[in-house]
Task: inverse folding
């Protein structure tokens, strides 16, 4: 008598088959889910790289300012004295072959100097008047006008109350140059990304996003930087640096 067969449920083979199929489906589902997870992970793999480009530039435009001033007991006396000094400066610039269109004159500034007691209190009376006339000269002959800005101080020996400001040196072709340098910085970023990828058995894919940083225009070989960007106007010879941040897809 076969007692084992009697104790088994009548549908035991079907139950085993169902359990086997369920196990197989779980294995297959797990494999599919793992593959899908791997594909999603791969598609989200990115590499963020910073690229930069640097070029030397030479200023091609100069702006320099100078001013004359007069302080006299009355406004009329100050004005007459200032007018005389202004005419002398204009004659000096004309003698140096500075064209009239290169010279701009600002509005005359007038300041009343109050009378002050020993205790530091104003008396309400005016002690003197100070008038100032400013000139600004702009030209593309940088070397010539930089030299002239130094020579102009000789007017002081004539009794002219002259103040000469440090020249500002500018570069007028920044707009097209910025475009070129962003392209160079982007190439540098891709080269760096490919160098990193080659060491990780990966390949660089399409660009996901790109962000241009601020430009740094500094004196030659300077290491100064600013989060807001820099534009040095004190030197003729400069360096311009562009930085970009590129996010690449990884294969």
Result:
């Amino acid at each position: 008598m076969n007692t084992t067969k009697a104790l088994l449920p009548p549908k035991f083979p079907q139950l085993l088959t169902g359990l086997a199929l369920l196990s197989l489906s779980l294995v297959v589902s797990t494999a599919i889910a793992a593959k899908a997870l791997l594909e999603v992970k791969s598609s989200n793999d990115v590499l963020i790289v910073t690229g930069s480009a640097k070029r030397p530039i030479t200023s091609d435009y100069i702006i320099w300012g100078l001013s004359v001033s007069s302080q006299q007991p009355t406004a009329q006396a100050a004005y007459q004295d200032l007018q005389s000094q202004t005419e002398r400066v204009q004659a000096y610039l004309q003698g140096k072959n500075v064209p009239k269109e290169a010279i701009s004159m600002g509005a005359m500034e007038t300041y009343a100097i109050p009378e002050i007691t020993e205790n530091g209190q104003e008396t309400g009376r005016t002690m003197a008047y100070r008038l100032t006339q400013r000139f600004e000269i702009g030209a593309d002959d940088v070397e010539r006008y930089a030299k002239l800005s130094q020579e102009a101080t000789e007017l002081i020996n004539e009794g002219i109350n002259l103040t000469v400001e440090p020249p500002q040196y500018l570069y007028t072709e920044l707009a097209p140059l910025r475009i070129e340098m962003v392209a160079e910085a982007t190439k540098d970023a891709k080269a760096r990304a490919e160098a990193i990828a080659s060491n990780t058995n990966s390949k660089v894919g399409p660009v996901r996003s790109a962000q241009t940083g601020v430009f740094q225009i500094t004196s030659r070989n300077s290491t100064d930087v600013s989060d807001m960007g820099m534009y040095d106007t004190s030197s003729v010879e400069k360096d311009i640096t562009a930085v970009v941040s590129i996010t690449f897809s990884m294969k």
